[in-house]
Design goal:
The chain is built from nine helices and seven strands. The longest helix has 21 residues.
Length: 224
C-alpha cells in the first residue's frame, strides 16, 4: 500500500520542517502546481525536498482558485471540458519542468480538490483531465478515486491507474467523498484513520492523507 500526500500547498509547512517530516513517511508526493495554492517557487522547493527524501513525485493540478483552495466546483460554471484540458496541460508541463530541474521525473498525476471530485462523478471531466495530461506525458500513472467513474475513463484514455482511497475522509453510501461542507467529512483520530485504511486497502493501490488535515503527522505515523 503506497501512502500519498498533497504537498507544496503551504509555505509555512515547507519552512518549519513539517513537509520534510511528511516526506519521511510517504511513498508518493502530489505536488501542487502553484495554482490552487502555494506558488511556483514553492513547487520548485517541494520538488527539491522530494528529491532529497527519495519520494516518487507527481503533479497535483487544480482549479486556479486559491481563495477557495481549489475546492469550489467550477465545471460548467467557469470552465468547460476544453478549458479543463488546457489548465491541466499547463500545470503538468510546469510540474514536469520543476521536477526535472530537481533531478526527478514525474511518476504520476493526481487532480486536486473540486476537479478530482467532479471527475469522480462526471466522465466528461475525467476525460478532459486525461487529455490534458496526455498533451504533456503518456508514461505516468493517473490517480483516481477507487470504484469511481474516473478510473474507467482514465484507463480508456490509455493510462495505468492507481486506485486511491482516503484515510482522513469519510465516504457517502455511493462511495464518493462526503463534501467538506459536512461537519463529519473529516477523520481526525489516527486510530480511526488506520482502521479505515485496513477496510479500504483491498480495492485500492494508494491511500491519501491530506497535509492540511488535523493530526496529519499523527495519522501518517499510525498508517506506517
Amino acid at each position: 500500500m503506497l501512502i500519498n500526500c498533497d504537498l507544496g500547498e503551504s509555505e509555512l509547512m515547507a519552512a518549519d520542517g513539517r513537509q520534510q517530516r511528511i516526506l519521511s513517511m510517504i511513498q508518493l508526493a502530489n505536488v501542487c502546481c502553484g495554482e490552487h495554492a502555494g506558488s511556483r517557487d514553492l513547487t520548485k522547493l517541494t520538488m527539491r525536498q522530494c528529491f532529497d527524501a527519495k519520494v516518487k513525485t507527481g503533479a497535483h493540478p487544480g482549479y486556479p482558485d486559491p481563495e477557495h483552495f481549489g475546492r469550489r466546483p467550477l465545471f460548467g460554471v467557469e470552465y468547460d471540458a476544453q478549458q479543463i484540458s488546457e489548465l491541466v496541460s499547463a500545470q503538468v508541463a510546469f510540474a514536469k519542468e520543476a521536477a526535472e530541474e530537481a533531478g526527478l521525473a514525474l511518476y504520476h498525476v493526481k487532480p486536486h480538490g473540486a476537479l478530482y471530485n467532479e471527475a469522480a462523478e462526471n466522465g466528461e471531466v475525467a476525460e478532459a483531465i486525461a487529455k490534458g495530461v496526455r498533451k504533456v506525458l503518456r508514461d505516468v500513472f493517473l490517480v483516481g478515486l477507487a470504484k469511481s467513474v474516473m478510473v474507467g475513463v482514465f484507463r480508456r484514455q490509455g493510462f495505468v491507474v492507481l486506485r486511491e482511497a482516503f484515510a482522513d475522509r469519510r465516504y457517502t453510501a455511493e462511495g464518493l467523498l462526503v463534501p467538506r461542507s459536512s461537519p463529519d467529512a473529516l477523520i481526525h483520530d489516527p486510530e480511526e484513520a488506520h482502521r479505515q485504511m485496513l477496510q479500504l486497502k483491498r480495492f485500492s493501490d494508494t491511500i491519501c492523507v491530506h497535509s492540511d488535515s488535523p493530526n496529519s503527522l499523527q495519522m501518517l505515523k499510525a498508517l506506517n
